[in-house]
Amino acid sequence: MYEPKSTKGNLTKQRILHIARSLFYRQGYDCTSTAQIAKQADISEAAMYKYFKNKHDLLLATVQPSVLFNRTKEELISLPNDELIQLWTSDLLEKIFANRPQFTILFTEAVRHPELSEQYTTSLYELTHGDHEILRRMKQGRIMEIDLKLLQVGIIGATLSMVQHTFIYKPETEFTHVPEHIKKNIFQLIQGELLKKEQEKLQ
């Protein structure tokens, strides 16, 4: 994967992006000013606009996932359906957890800025090898055929809600990975949906 050079300009751009993402995540897009972002980034607003043409452009950049999980085709192709779905779900949950600020901004701000969802769907959302393998098996009739992208949106929303709920009622909890009780709940939901075809065959 291509890694951008750590030039002074690139480091400044990444610093602006990191600060903006943190502020949008904690206090919301509308409550965050470009002056506040520039001040925390220790640059002028004019300098910030060299990297992002406006605040909205910065908003779109903040929902770009920074941590991705993508296994090789060889790891997935020989797995039985239940193991494939469990591995796919586990990777998706870790991706959501590692990119909580991005997904929280996306879900929170998309109500007022629907183009955010459109941009994510058309530009930022990329099919993983796991996605391709599940779609392949759907076409073959081996897995229940459903809208995989819409399913992932549902998983993202449910996971964020459960994590937030855990933070509220157990504020002492320190998360480094997706909590096991959340994994278990999501696994049961996904396996019940995607493996309906196999379950029907057993009846």
Walk me through this protein's architecture.
- It is a single chain.
- The chain has 203 residues and is mainly α.
- The chain is 67% helix and 0% strand.
- Helix 1 crosses helix 4, helix 1 packs across helix 7 and helix 6 crosses helix 11.
Keywords for this entry:
12 helices; mainly alpha
User: On the 0-100 scale, what is the average pLDDT?
Assistant: 85
Show unreliable segments.
none
Q: Please identify the oligomeric state.
A: single chain
**Strand/helix succession:** HHHHHHHHHHHH
Which band does the percent of strand residues land in? Answer: under 5%
> What is the number of E strands?
0
Radius of gyration: 19 Å
Largest sheet: none
Question: Helicity range of the residues?
Answer: 55-70%
Structural class: mainly alpha
Number of helices: 12
User: What gap, in angstroms, lies between the N and C termini?
Assistant: 46 Å
- Overall, the morphology is elongated
Summarize the structure.
Helices cover 67% and strands 0% of the residues. The mean pLDDT is 85.
Helices, strands, pairings?
Blueprint (H helix, E strand, L loop, with lengths): L7 H20 L6 H8 L3 H4 L6 H8 L10 H4 L4 H18 L1 H10 L5 H10 L4 H11 L8 H22 L10 H15 L1 H7 L1
